[in-house]
Amino acid sequence: MIDPDALKTASACRHYAMCKIDYLGTGLCPAAQSIPFAGYYPQGRMDIYKALGAGAIPVTEGLVEIADACTLCGSCDKQCYFVTGLRPLRVMEALKELVDDHRRGGGAVTRVEPDELLRRLRAIVGEDYATNDPAHLTAYAADLCPIAEPGAPRYVILPRTRDEIAAVVRLCRDEGLPYVVRGNGASSMGFALGPGRLVIDTNRMKGLTIDRDRCCAVVEPGVSAFELQREANRHGLRANVAEPAALVCANLMCSGIFSLFGASYGTCASNCVNAEFAGPDGEVFDLNQAEARNLFSFRKEIIPMPAVCTKAWVKLHPTTDGEEGVFVPFGAFDEALAFAEDLNKRQVGFGLGILGTEYTASFLAPTADLARRLREVFPDILGIKYLVLVLADRYGVETVKKAAGGRVIDQRLFRALLLGSPNLGGADVMSILGEVPSGGPVFETLCRPEMLSLVEAVLDPSPRTLARAVPDDLKAFFEGLYERPEMADPVWLNMFRILSSRMGRDKTFVPCIVYAPLDKKDLIAEILDRFKRVADGHGVVNGYGFVMPLDFGQRALIEYDYYFDHTDPVQVDNIRKALFEVAGYIVETGAKVPGVVWIRHLVFQGFSRMEHFLYI
Question: How many CB atoms lie within 10 A of CB 426?
Answer without folding.
Answer: 13
